[in-house]
Amino acid sequence: MVRKGVSTVLALLIVLCFSSFAFAAHLPRLDGKPAAFKAGDSQGYFIWQDKEGLHVRTTTLGKSHVFSGVIRTDGVFEDTFGKTNGQDDYFHVNGDRNKITFQFTTTGGTSGIDMHFKDGTYLTFSLSMDGDEINPNDIFIGEDGWHPESYKFTIRHGREFDRHDDGGPIVIIGGPWIDWGPGPGPGPHRHGW
Question: Which of 73, 96, 146, 185 is in the most buried spot, having the most CB atoms within 10 Å?
Fold first, then answer.
């Protein structure tokens, strides 16, 4: 009787371990440029990380669109570099270096921001296109190009929360969370513009 109980518990633990491993293996990843990102041949926001830092790009299918948004962290942004095309385009890092606001007019090419951040546990995005909340299907994250459930989302690593403090959805990412310190310095030579 005791052996049967121990065997049952052991079997349940094995199933639990394998199901946890399978779940972790299928977590969305921030690593790698989205495969769908092709300047002028795709449209939307493209977000990824690599050894150079965190990248946010916009591109369109040739028609002019205005992309705007806010990126926040509980850490600090460093070594922030942007490529803007329009006369009214901008990106701004606040004095506390924990919030970036931006606006890019993109017509077939690319616009975007490259950055490092450190000491942070999350990144919160609120993204728009042409003054409206962008369809989440037009947001591509990581090499697999996964989509968040809303235009407003938080990427967090290593913590299992369902909602951010502001009520927005949390995405738990797999893979390494890169805590970038200052890089070799901003410039198009490093960011592949």
Answer: 73
